[in-house]
Structures are given as structure tokens and as C-alpha cells.
Amino acid sequence: MLDEFGDRGRVLAGGQSLFQLMNFRVVKPENLIDINSVIELDYIRSDDGIMAIGARTRQSTLERSREADERVPLMVEAVKNVAHPSVRNRGTVGGSVAYADPASELPAVVLAMDGEVVLSSSRGERVLPAAEFFRGPYTNACSADELLTEVRLPEWPYGTGHAFLEFRRKHGSYALVGCAALVHLDGESVDRVAISLCGVDETPVRAFKAEELVVGNAPSEELFEEAAEAVAPELNPLPDPKGSPEYRRKLAKVFIRRTLDLAVRRAKGERS
Amino acid sequence: MSHRRQISVVVNGTRHEAEVEARKYLAEFLREDLRLVGTHIGCEHGVCGACTVLMDGVSVRSCIVLAAQANEAEIMTVEGLASDGQMHPLQEAFLEKQGLQCGYCTPGMLVRAYELLREDPEPTAEQVREGMSNNLCRCTGYQYIVEAVLLGAERMHNA
């Protein structure tokens, strides 16, 4: 159907963003292709160290999945920050990732975990790394005839510390800045780390500079401070009424520190 | 593509067969076609929660769900709470605790509170506050709403 309608068709997943845009007349799709009845895309399964989540999986299903909580706890912690329960009851994992809202939680986690998305069309299937999928604000690498069908997250080893924290004005509101982190310790020092941010640029971004500074070192407040300082100047938050770019850079610094701190504490706690 | 859809939906225990415009939202269908005007439409973009109903047992914002999507679903609106002319304990609690001022948000508050207490029959005040943040009250009478939900929980427990 996507093949047939092309640009005149729009995929309807949970509709929790699309219907907002339609009600504001921001988008006026001629045809909606409702994938809610495609229950084959409603699954959470782990295979060979990769957690695969079907695009049509409701956010509330992910939130309550014990398997996801054991294997990709960062994703579960993040999804609890998405809007409110009634929205998560309809909203889907694939929809949130495909929507590519720069302030959105799930895209930041997919990026932090070096996740991949599966794009399917009548031509076949292709797998794209998250870094190539998010192209700009609300813009992804899907062609008009493609449907995002699966999100794949490489699982981190047992004992990894995870944390997702965000700043928002009110419970359930959009994040001004969010930070996702995974930390693995080898003895006293960090041997593997991934950090990403949302709300601070046109797409979710990896904090590579912070990762480079942290890896191989013993975690400390000073180290996190240094890592946060290195990243903040490079961020290009979009100006909007909720917070100036300068304010968001400051928030990013604070949240990189706090998120790393929590992830490290969990890494230590789970190891003992 | 046809712009109309044939749907069959159970609302508060009664099955309805209807033909609806494809673009019609569930909230509009409930209010206009079924005359169940308890479901209120506030913001019309999924933020305020006044239009909250249960769809197959879980709360959704009916202003951002299409009527056509409710085909073969079971819906519970605020009208489904009372039975035989008797108010539901939650409704009694909202009345007693004055958990409403203008009343516009109340239907959504009641449906969300019903879901919340089904998931956790004995929540703390903090959990109620967090759970009810799903819905907005522009009179800002949240304190009494929280008290009403807690009283409702107690009543339902003792019932």
C-alpha cells in the first residue's frame, strides 16, 4: 500500500503524534495506512544478544516487559518518561523512533546502544544503524514506500549500569534535555561507556567526546565534570520558547554528570 | 478508498453497529452518534485527558483515536461507571471530597482513576498524584482530586 500511495499515504501507528499534527492541520494526509491490526509486529524477543522490538509494540507493553527490563533496562527506563500512561497505551515503539522528534527519549536510547532499525518495503528489507537513520528534526531515512518494522538493540553484559534522566517542566511533558548512559566497569575503571542526549540538537546525539574521556578511567565527580564540559559547547540546540540554546547547554552539562553518576552507582551496586 | 467505515463496537456493555466517516474520532462518535456526552472534548490533541475512555480495558485519549479504530473493541465511558442508578464508589468519593470545580475534566479523571485503582487498589497519595498527572484540571483543584481518589480506593476496598 505504501508503494501504491507513496507521498500521498501516511503510516498510522499509535497516532499519538500524527493525530495531534492532523488536528492542528499541520499535516493533511490524503490516506492513512493503519498498521494497528498488524499484530505480527507486536513482539519483544531476544536472540543471540540482540533485543528485537516489533514496530507496533505499544510503549506500555515495553514498559511492563520483564524480559526487556532485564536485557535492555535503559530502554525501559526511558519509555517511562514518554508522555503519560494513556498515551503510552496507544503509542508504539516504532512510531516514536520513526517520528524522530529531537527531544524524544527512545531515539536517544537507540542511538546510545548502537541500535539498528529494519526498514521494509515491497522491494525487500534493509537494516540501518541508528546513526544513519536520524537525519534531522522529525526526519528519518525512510523512503516513502518503506515501513520501519523492527528496532534492534545490542544487549550489554550483565552488570552494566544504565541511567536515563531528563529535565522537563512538568511530569509527562516533553524533555528540554534528556541523557541516556550505559557504563560497564572492569574493576575500578570504566571499560565501556555510551552516552547520548536528546533535546540538544537537530537529532539525538552521541556524546563521543565524553565517552573518550571517561573510558579507561576510574569514575569520579571531576571526570564527569570534565566530560560534560567537553560536550556542551558542541551542542546546537534548536531555539524555542521553552529554553534558549545556552540554557539547554547548561542543562546538558548537569544531566551528563547526573546520568553518568547514577549509571556508575548502579554498575557498582549490581556487581557487588 | 471509501471515506466511510462500517464498525461494530461494544460501549458500556451494549453492542453498536454504525457507519462512520473514516476521519471521525472516537470522542466525536461517542458524543454525536451515541449521545454519550459524558466524554468531554478539551484540547483535541491528546494533552488534557478530558476525553479519556477505556478501550479494551486500557485508558486512551479518545480525541486521538479514530472511531474506525474502535471496530471490534470494547469501550467504557464515564457513563459505564454507575450501575442501576447507583453511583460508583469513585463518583461518590469525588462528590464528597469535592473533587471537582467546573467539572469539565471530571469524566476523564474518573475513568483514569478507575484504571489506576484497578492496577493498584491501594496507592499512596504520591502514587495517585503521579498517576493522575495523566489528566489536566484547569481549575487546578488537584488536592481534592487526589483525596477523592484515595477515598474511592478505600471505599472500593471495603465494598
Write up this protein:
The complex is a heterodimer of chains A (272) and B (159). Chain A is an alpha+beta fold. Chain A folds into two domains: 36-154, Uridine Diphospho-n-acetylenolpyruvylglucosamine Reductase, domain 3 (2-Layer Sandwich), CATH 3.30.465; 161-271, Enolase-like, domain 1 (2-Layer Sandwich), CATH 3.30.390. Chain A has helices at 2-5, 18-23, 59-64, 66-71, 73-79, 85-88, 93-99, 105-112, 130-133, 208-214, 221-231, 245-271, and strands at residues 9-12, 31-34, 44-47, 50-54, 116-121, 124-129, 134-136, 139-140, 147-154, 161-167, 177-186, 189-198, 205-206. In chain A, the strands form four sheets. Chain A has a five-stranded antiparallel beta sheet. In chain A, α5 runs antiparallel to α8 and α10 packs antiparallel against α11 (221-231). Chain B has two domains: 4-80, Ubiquitin-like (UB roll) (Roll), CATH 3.10.20; 89-158, DNA polymerase, domain 1. Chain B has a five-stranded mixed beta sheet, covered by helices on one side. In chain B, α2 crosses α5 and α4 (125-132) packs across α5. The longest helix of chain B is centred in the C-terminal third of the chain and has 17 residues, at 142-158. The model of chain B has no long low-confidence stretch (mean pLDDT 96).
